[in-house]
Known about the structure:
- By secondary structure, this protein is of the alpha/beta class.
- It has helices spanning about 30-40, 40-55, 95-110, 130-140, 160-170; strands at about 1-5, 15-20, 65-70, 75-80, 115, 150-155.
- A six-stranded mixed sheet has the order 1-6-5-2-4-3, sandwiched between helices.
- Strand 3 and strand 4 (about 75-80) form a beta hairpin.
- Helix 3 packs across helix 4 (about 130-140) and helix 4 packs parallel to helix 5 (about 160-170).
- The two termini are about 15 Å apart.
- It comes from Actinocatenispora rupis.
- InterPro entries: Macro_dom, Macro_dom-like.
- This is Macro domain-containing protein.
Amino acid sequence: MRIEVVHGDVTEQRVDAIVNAANSSLLGGGGVDGAIHRRGGPEILAECRALRAAKYGRGLPTGQAVATTAGRLPARWVIHTVGPVYSGTEDRAGLLHDCYRNALRVADELGAATVAFPLVSAGVYGWPVEDAIRRALGTLRATPSTVDMSRLVLFDPGTLPYAERVLADL
């Protein structure tokens, strides 16, 4: 799988699937989750509500992933994954790795060839950005997948040089 790192807005990526750093309710929120729901439109929320009613009554568990339509986004699907809240006293790195692995698994099931990822858990969930970048890129590189290209989309342009160095070292 080819891996790219870019500065930009994940909601503007023209790919088969856009990954959403969702909250467990699947009903929208702030950050990436809110942006995806706003730009994608009510179709995404309708499918998320149906998922809650059918399978995820208590919400999507941390580290898991599930797909919906992408609505008005320039993609076919949104793959929702719930990242862990960072803790300085408890190792939650496995859950963060699960977000990327499970999103790729869902992408494989959908037949997606191209996937755009935000930096999961590095916003309001407080994961240190440089560590989140290393874990994201390392997990994407190490996870077997039929996806042709994964793109890590960084909202902060200042993080791009670091991500490019990490990717070059993988």
